Amino acid sequence: MADIYSAELNPGKLDVISAWLSKQSWAAEADVAPESLKKVTSYRFDDPEGKVGAEIHIVAAGDRVFQVPLTYRGVELAGADKHLISTMEHSILGTRWVYDGMGDPHFRQRLDHAIATAGTSAKQYRVDDEGNRIDEITDVAHAWGTGPLAGAGDVQVLYELNLDSPAEGSDAGLLLGRWAGQEAPVVLAVMV
């Protein structure tokens, strides 16, 4: 489960996402300025040790929809400089190192686990400044795995989403998502 603080972030999440998207060739020609991005939803994966935040953002830039997996760490991840996107000041947790999730072994392990076990995204709870859970806010996104593909290799996140892609009938290990306003499951990641 994930505890979500009502905290001030500097830079903000959309600023970090915008900076990362602007460097991706597959997002070329999309208006990814922070003021142009619209948050669609987000989901998280659990960290059994409670040390790494693994949050996946789904944002719209005009009629294009992007998925951006990020990890938040309280200390630098050794050997992962090329995957570091930003540092962020969190008003409650302090300095956070923000990484491209696909470059963070923790994120990749949690993504693989979700698909292999037909798992779900983490339950999310809004908490007060003292860390007390106020209410559950998990209903903004639901992601679940469909189980492993025999002999499968790596899992790949789909960075640009096709909201009309049929997810039914596939024999691949998939991570599917559905959220308010998106009734049909969307393919978020696939085992290749």
UniProtKB/TrEMBL annotation:
<protein>
    <recommendedName>
        <fullName>Maltokinase N-terminal cap domain-containing protein</fullName>
    </recommendedName>
</protein>
<keyword id="KW-0067">ATP-binding</keyword>
<keyword id="KW-0547">Nucleotide-binding</keyword>
<dbReference type="Pfam" id="PF18085">
    <property type="entry name" value="Mak_N_cap"/>
</dbReference>
<dbReference type="GO" id="GO:0016301">
    <property type="term" value="F:kinase activity"/>
</dbReference>
<feature type="domain" description="Maltokinase N-terminal cap">
    <location>
        <begin position="20"/>
        <end position="104"/>
    </location>
</feature>
<keyword id="KW-0808">Transferase</keyword>
<dbReference type="InterPro" id="IPR040999">
    <property type="entry name" value="Mak_N_cap"/>
</dbReference>
<dbReference type="GO" id="GO:0005524">
    <property type="term" value="F:ATP binding"/>
</dbReference>
<keyword id="KW-0418">Kinase</keyword>
